[in-house]
Amino acid sequence: MNFEWSAREQAFRDEIRSFLARELPPDWEKIARHGPGSKQQTEFSRVFCTKLAEAGLLVPHWPKEHGGRGSSVWEHFILGEEMWAVGEPRGPQYMNVNWIGPTILRFGTAEQKARYIPEIAAGNAVWCQGFSEPSAGSDLASLRTRADRDGDHFVINGSKVWTSYAGLAQHCFLLARTGGSRKDGICIFLIPMQTPGITVRPIPALVGNGDLHEVFFQDVRVPVSSMLGEEGKAWSLITYALANERIGLPRYQLSTRVLGEMVEQLKANGSWNDDIVRFRAGQALAASEAARMLVYRVVDQRSRGLPPNAESSLARVAIVEADHAVANFALDFLPEAFSGDVLPLLKPHHERAIAAGIASGAAEIQLGIVASDYLNLPRS
Amino acid sequence: MFLDISDDQDALLTTVSAVLARAKSRLVLGSGKASFDLELDADLDKNGVLDAASYPEFGVSTAALIVHEVCRSASITEVGASAVIRPLICSDAPRPLAVLTGDPGQAVRFLPVARAVLVLSEAGASWFPVSPDDIEVVDSYFAYPMGRIHDPERCLARSRSVADPMLARRLAQLAVAAEISGVLQGGLDAVVEHVTDRRQFGRPLGTFQSIQHRLAACASKIAAAKWLAFKAGSGSATHADAVTALAYAQTVVDPIVYDLHQFLGAMGLTLEHPLYRWTYRAKLLKSEFGGASRSNRELADLAW
């Protein structure tokens, strides 16, 4: 066991903090208050990510020939921690750099890499993921959106729902079915959102403006060359992509940041002397640190090249509990702070917390994975 | 970072496993709750595993790992204070050790078998030797031998101060955190085995999703408690790390113990099954250092 950061890792973290101190504008937190899918944050993120890219900090974990600097798994994770500690100013682009880009790099054709990778690496691209459907949420393999071959094209018909960032995205990482059932017959298409036949409708939501959408595909013609990987064999690619996603984001960084800011407010208003307030604050902090340890354990396994396992789900469960512990602390002791500009990150934290147990595989899916693959409980 | 068992630690755990296997073969269930395995105590001592914290290649994290593994066993012995605190704080104190953190006249676990008592108070830390004549055995509701010091003033008069009382307190908090993660893991192991084998409604209990999800939630909490304790033993760890581990572990005891007993049903109410040997250790450990409420407040005070 070794719980220490290496000198190189600490230097990398310091480099990111210096960058953030230099480049994050004073009004950033007020922009973040609009939510990660908002027009304000998306526009901010385009400019911010371009600067990150110029500093070599947008995709440092990518190969050098694609704009990266060959950073380690831990360094990639440190980047995520530092971004979350300030409220994730990369906005929707975290998806591009964490799993859409790496999946295209791993499975894409030369043409696909040439078309999409440079703009992701430059910080100019906004993608959405066309996964969930009205009848396929946690049970992703039941998706119904069709892709039917017509000469050199596929014709896509169907609909997606709860799609984050779709209103402002240029591209969609779309799952559709050319045949088969369940995990067989699913394909991935990389398609421009401006393609005729795509209609995006925002869904008013608790998780911020512009975050959730319905996306309708009506006779959308896309070239065969837009398919990523082999026809009907996308499930293994999805697994690869979600393995990068499922570890869970370092949400505990934002949670502990917001918790600390709340404590300052509670000290200022005299509530900090209350034993119950301090008890609950300690409890929320301990839950956040518990999540951190389980996430670190997973990152360590990945850094050693070990295959993904059920410990990712153990960590996701802890992350959800920690997010809710901090969000509930805010609701109990500082409900008035959700309005106004005193704690601008409180609202986006809350919005992320209520989605934490649902996005990227519901918490109950994670519990099921822990039961079967970690505890080895019998299957029904 | 390297968050796994090293080869050296693995070799040490092999020794621990062999010692615990011998203890398991001696285990007699069905009688009193507080039986203490003196042979296990001697076996651990003889094999040198209780000294790991003092060796640079192992350190306190390894001691926490040993405590976790020993407490995972249904056999009851004193390991937390002996493996985590004694090597660094009072290596000349005879063992087993009892740790007194509150009123000197209170009932304390392990006192009937202890040969020394470590006292942690606001004023500092010290230890004094004890003999059976100093101790009044207390009927134990918990799965520990419990006792009370007859004449605390006389015993405290022969106490010897320790050099670093803050380190002693920090290590004691870490030791309890590792003990909690171990006893909860032992209980979970037993309940998983039970719901895998036990059939009701024509199928194993463990196939019911209501049981699966709650045990999975227990597993996540126990894994986190364990790694927080290990981290609190690392070279750069702070007092806040130890209190984080303790506060988190004490907080998760209640929901986990409830679920473990629920899923073992009436079997878990008997002394024929060893579940009480884990849960009735956890129920006492959660009150150490003032309990989860005080530990969480201490964490808040240290953090902010």
Helix/strand layout:
The complex is a heterodimer of chains A (380) and B (304).
Chain A: H1 7-23, H2 28-32, H3 39-54, H4 73-85, H5 93-107, H6 110-122, E1 127-130, E2 146-150, E3 153-161, E4 171-177, E5 186-192, E6 198-202, E7 213-223, E8 227-228, H7 235-246, H8 251-268, H9 275-303, H10 311-333, H11 346-356, H12 363-374
Parallel strand pairs in A: 1-4
Antiparallel strand pairs in A: 2-3, 3-7, 4-5, 5-8, 6-7
Chain B: H1 7-26, H2 38-46, H3 59-72, H4 80-89, E1 97-100, E2 108-109, E3 116-121, E4 124-129, E5 135-138, E6 146-149, H5 152-157, E7 160-161, H6 165-197, E8 199-200, E9 203-204, H7 209-232, H8 239-264, H9 275-285, H10 291-303
Parallel strand pairs in B: 1-3
Antiparallel strand pairs in B: 2-6, 3-4, 4-7, 5-6, 8-9
Helix pairs in contact in B: 1-2, 1-3, 3-6, 3-7, 4-6, 6-7, 6-8, 6-9, 7-8, 8-9, 8-10
Describe the structure.
The complex is a heterodimer of chains A (380) and B (304). With 380 residues, chain A is of the alpha+beta class. Chain A is built from 12 helices and 8 strands. Chain A has helices at 7-23, 28-32, 39-54, 73-85, 93-107, 110-122, 235-246, 251-268, 275-303, 311-333, 346-356, 363-374; strands spanning 127-130, 146-150, 153-161, 171-177, 186-192, 198-202, 213-223, 227-228. Chain B is an alpha+beta fold and 304 residues long. Chain B has a domain at 165-303: Butyryl-CoA Dehydrogenase, subunit A, domain 3 (Up-down Bundle), CATH 1.20.140. Chain B has helices at 7-26, 38-46, 59-72, 80-89, 152-157, 165-197, 209-232, 239-264, 275-285, 291-303; strands spanning 97-100, 108-109, 116-121, 124-129, 135-138, 146-149, 160-161, 199-200, 203-204. Chains A and B meet through helix 8, helix 9, helix 10 and helix 12 of A and helix 3, helix 6, strand 9, helix 7 and helix 8 of B.
